[in-house]
Amino acid sequence: MLISAGMKPPKKILGHGFLTREGQKMGKSLGNVLDPEILLNKYGEESVRWYLLKDISLGSDGDFQDRRFVDIINNDLANTIGNLLNRTTSMSRKWFNNQTPSISEKNNNEIITLANNSIKNYLNYFDNYKIDKASNEILNFATNVNLYLNKKEPWSLIKDDNNINEVKLIIYNVLEATRIIGTLIKPILPEFSNKILNQLGENDIANKDWEESLKWGLLPESNKLQKPIPIINKLDYE
Question: pTM of the prediction?
């Protein structure tokens, strides 16, 4: 049909698997059909996208579970990523005049190596249509950044003025890692990505080269930070 219309046929065709609900095949007689319009209106497009892309391998069968859906959105987007952004921007605003800290050096360290490895893995997964693995790579990176922040404990270090340069570097590293997270997630959740980047003071996001934006150290120093607000609301069980 495409050839007869003078159009080039696609090089690849990707097909999705079957979707069950709570372990059962969906059907009118069971009354368990998942209405996509109701789902989107209730939870929002990006929450549904994250669940389907992160939790189900492309081309494989999947099972939609209401409780698991709520857990994944709350744990991944609201807690692991959202809280990381919120608490780090709050600390930076409090300690550094509502701005990103200015730092004297950007030495290669554990979090930069972690970021570069995550970016490499993410791009490889994405190029091979392993969107679930790419999504989980973002989540693993965010989890490790949270662990880095908890290990460094800048809230304890800041009590001693002699530690100010170390605190600045820690906070910059976490804010920059969060910017990388926001950039990586853009092809999957564009609105969620924009909310992260906007709170970090990123401007003219749409006109920036996506892959170039994954380079470490692009978050400007002494950059004004927006007042932190939740980038996604937690869902309730029903």
Answer: 0.90
Cα end-to-end span (Å), the chain: 47
Sign of CA dihedral 22, 24, 25, 27: negative
Question: What is the C-alpha separation between 234 and 207, in angstroms, rounded?
Answer: 31
3-state secondary structure at position 64: strand
* Domain 67-214, CATH number (from 3.40.1260.20, 3.60.20.10, 1.10.730.10, 1.10.1040.10): 1.10.730.10
Helical ranges in the chain per DSSP H:
36-43, 45-55, 66-72, 84-95, 110-127, 131-152, 154-157, 164-184, 190-199
pLDDT, averaged per 10 consecutive residues of the chain (238 residues), comes to 82 78 80 84 92 89 88 96 96 96 77 95 95 96 97 96 94 96 96 94 76 92 91 86
